[in-house]
Structure formats: structure tokens, C-alpha cells
Amino acid sequence: xxxxxxxxxxxxxxxxxxxxxxxxxxxxxxxxxxxxxxxxxxxxxxxxxxxxxxxxxxxxxxxxxxxxxxxxxxxxxxxxxxxxxxxxxxxxxxxxxxxxxxxxxxxxxxxxxxxxxxxxxxxxxxxxxxxxxxxxxxxxxxxxxxxxxxxxxxxxxxxxxxxxxxxxxxxxxxxxxxxxxxxxxxxxxxxxxxxxxxxxxxxxxxxxxxxxxxxxxxxxxxx
Length: 223
Description:
- The structure is a single chain.
- By secondary structure, this protein is mainly α.
- The chain has one domain (2-214).
- The chain has helices spanning 2-27, 41-74, 84-97, 101-108, 113-121, 124-127, 134-142, 158-171, 177-181, 186-213.
- The radius of gyration is 20 Å and the shape is elongated.
- The two termini are 24 Å apart.
- The model has no long low-confidence stretch (mean pLDDT 87).
């Protein structure tokens, strides 16, 4: 389960490294404002890198959540065996996703409701609502009894908020790619790449440990 998340994360990291290396080569000096090199191309590439970083954050976050539901599916875990916060999450999601009890029953396709309810409740497009940062990760993963810590004293996930804001500014048209990238430096981009990569790799490892220890289970249900 988690191995596919790690593989996809590594693939996206490689793509980010390729673009960053190209920007670094064009810019030469790491403290140069990127608007001064490349005739406008480098600022555009720099903004594109910010989008790639956000996509890596969101993709990894979604995949980690999905891996939790996959584990429950594969191990045939009953709703009744889950920790209370996870139960509440499932019921709230079902309430938001289904207009009636009959539509929920239809989605279960005649299966055991205690075993199938968690999967039926999962709507990935609603998990993070397109705005993933460190605060949102702590909030959402907390619903599953997954405690999010920081990878280091120096990395508290602050870069994730900046990247989310960059993504929203670019995606919603508040700023052009060239304009947004003007004041970025290679040093800025390196810091964002390294800190985002470290933080999200840590989230994957936390999820791996969570699944291994089966922290989604209510302790009273564990023999």
C-alpha cells in the first residue's frame, strides 16, 4: 500500500529536481532575482516549479489518506473496531455525501455495512478541498488518529503554506507566472524544494508507521 505512495513521491521529486536544476543552470547565481535572467522564461519556470511542489504536496496527502482506507479494506476491518474519531469522520462524510439512506445502501452494493462503510464514505475530492498545508494535514490526519509531528526543529511545515498560497495565486489568475516568479531566487526555490520534500517524506513515514501499528483500531477491540 504505502510502497506505491513512496514510488509516486520519488517520481515527482525527480521531476522537480530536473526543473530546479534547469532553473539553477540558467540563473547561475543563487541570490539573483530570477526576473533578471532568461528574458522572462526563468520566472515562468520558477512559478511552474511552485505548482509542481504544490501538486506533490496534494498528491502525497491524498495518497496517504487513501492508503488508510485501503488497509482497512484489505484487512476487512469493521467499523465497530475503529477508534472513535475515525468513526465520527466516516459518519460525517456519509452525511455529506449521500442524500438518503437508500443511496448509501446502494453504494454498499449489498455488502456488510460494518465492513464497507468506511470505503463508501471516502470522497477524495472533499478530503482537503484543494488547500493543503501543514495545518490542514494535522487536522485531517488527526481524524484518523494519526498524529503529525515535524520532521525536524527547523522544519515545521511553514514552506507548505507559502507553496499553497503560490498555487492559489497562480491557479486563480491573481498573478501571472512571469510576475509571480520575478522576486524569487534560486535560494528561495531550493529552500522550498528541500523543506517540502522533507516534510512530505516525513508524512509518508508517519503513515507507514501508523498502518504498521494499526492505530486506526480502538484499543479495546485489539486482542
